[in-house]
């Protein structure tokens, strides 16, 4: 299948691109940074997979509209960023940016590709959510708001596409050890006045009974299932990989 992944130049997006390429999918690696997308596409090609690279700014309508006519079977809305600060100190422009990238951008990219999916009678949309689509943490107001919004957005699109073989679901992992999470560790340490190891032990992993970061392989396995015929009737759903966090 032809799989477009946003924010695929690093972190979860890169991991998913590499993993899904090994399953035989053709990957359209998109990222805000052309060089990062190029590097991942070349890595896939060097391993015998098929990939193309494309610069894409999901917060820019012109950049999204340039994809018009691009044949895509699977869209993975993964692009994201983080900013950690109390709401009183949260820069309004930064709040807007997080919402624009992780909620509005995901919605507008989905909008742009839906007509093509309808024409071919098939489509799979996977939103990379977060444990913070289900619960909250202090100092992450914009991120939590954006990720919570994804769940409602997915349910609406699931209803609007129920008349054809298109599904949309949101995968919600707790912490995956990526460069973005490593930045969060440092930011949380500063915000809470504790060591980075204490952030890992007492803030990130403590709520998870299994006490381990989620792996890219686990995320990729869930995505592969959602793409498969076995998940044809799974739509508008929230798939949670949280090590037992929300079981408490």
From TrEMBL:
GO terms for biological process: monocarboxylic acid metabolic process. Pfam families: adh_short. Gene3D superfamilies: NAD(P)-binding Rossmann-like Domain (3.40.50.720). GO terms for molecular function: 3-hydroxybutyrate dehydrogenase activity. Belongs to the short-chain dehydrogenases/reductases (SDR) family. This is 3-hydroxybutyrate dehydrogenase.
């Amino acid at each position: 299948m032809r799989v477009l992944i946003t924010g695929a130049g690093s972190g979860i997006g890169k991991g998913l691109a590499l993993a899904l390429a090994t399953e035989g999918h053709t990957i359209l690696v998109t990222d805000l940074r052309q060089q990062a997308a190029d590097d991942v596409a070349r890595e896939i090609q060097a391993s015998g997979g098929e990939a193309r690279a494309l610069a894409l700014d999901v917060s820019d309508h012109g950049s999204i509209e340039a994809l018009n006519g691009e044949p895509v079977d699977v869209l993975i809305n993964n692009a994201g960023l983080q900013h950690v600060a109390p709401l009183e100190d949260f820069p309004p422009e930064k709040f807007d940016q997080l919402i624009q990238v992780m909620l509005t951008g995901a919605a507008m990219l989905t909008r742009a590709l839906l007509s093509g999916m309808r024409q071919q009678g098939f489509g799979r949309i996977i939103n990379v959510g977060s444990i913070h689509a289900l619960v909250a943490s202090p100092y992450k107001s914009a991120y939590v708001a954006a990720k919570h919004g994804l769940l409602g957005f997915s349910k609406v699109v699931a209803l609007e596409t129920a008349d054809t073989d298109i599904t949309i679901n949101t995968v919600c992992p707790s912490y995956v050890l990526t460069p973005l999470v490593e930045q969060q560790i440092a930011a949380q340490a500063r915000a809470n006045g504790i060591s980075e190891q204490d952030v890992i032990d007492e803030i990130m992993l403590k709520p998870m009974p299994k006490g381990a970061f989620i792996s890219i392989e686990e995320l990729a396995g869930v995505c592969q299932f959602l793409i498969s015929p076995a998940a044809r009737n799974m739509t508008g759903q929230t798939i949670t990989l949280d090590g037992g966090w929300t079981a408490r």
